[in-house]
Amino acid sequence: MIDTPVIEDAAPSTTPSRRLRRRGDGKLAVGAVIVGLFVLAALFAPLITSGHPAEQDLLNRLAPPSRAHVLGTDQLGRDEWTRLVYAIRIDLRVAVLGSLIPAVLGSLIGIAAGLGSKWLDAAIMRTSDIVVSLPLFIFFIALVGLLGPGTGFLFLGPGELPLIIGFTVISWVVYARLLRSEVRRVRSMDYIRAARLGGLPRRRVIAWHIVPNAIGQSIVYFFVDVGLAVVAISTLSFLGVGIPVGTPEWGSMIQSGRGVIQTNWWLIAAPGAAIALIGMGLALIGDGLDDRIKS
After folding, report:
1. Which parts of this chain are annotated as the region Disordered (predicted)?
2. Is residue 251 within 8 Å of residue 89, measured between CB atoms?
3. 38-58+69-294, CATH topology level
């Protein structure tokens, strides 16, 4: 009697790369839902809030949460829920612009450093070392003191432009270093050498082969950077720097509520939870994109 050999499956039903992709898709979905809800709340703020965020009711100050005021009122009788929702517009607008502009600028500089001469590379890297050595919050305080809050610029509100300029001056370094490292790694790969030996123009190799394969980590970091920018904006507003006092902004809301934390703790808990939730959503998007890139 001849034993029949047992034929095992050539490959498992789910490969590690497929599991990694599924995990990344799950993170992306959860993060997109969280961030999407914040964006929708900001867009439709007049429909889901009652009145204007600066509207005061001095006879109803520090009211507890109720049907009329979901999150109560602050020391001036302003509706906390209304201010919390309208603050999304300021925090996300400044955070996105304060991350997008340095992302574009830093990526261009990083590509130039990765593809340029040794002299250009050394000059860019030494400049980035100088920028990294700047103390972040002291630099912002000095910049805001120099420029002042102003009255707004185009679609920006008072105090927003100095913050965006500050983020641009500081944050381009991370993107430049990321792109420089990735470009130098990609350009040394065999398929890039083969493309050059095949006679493809240098510009086409850079635009169609090097940059698309090197930009992934910068896109991942962008979403994380937006979350970090939200925390930085709130911290600066808590310190009284940047966004003028009285403007609906999460950091200034925490600052104004800390004096009544024992009796009206929700005045701090609500904006603090909003900062944590939007940061988690952005981090999940970035982590999910990273898993998809690795898969």
Report:
1. 1-20
2. no
3. MetI-like fold (1.10.3720)
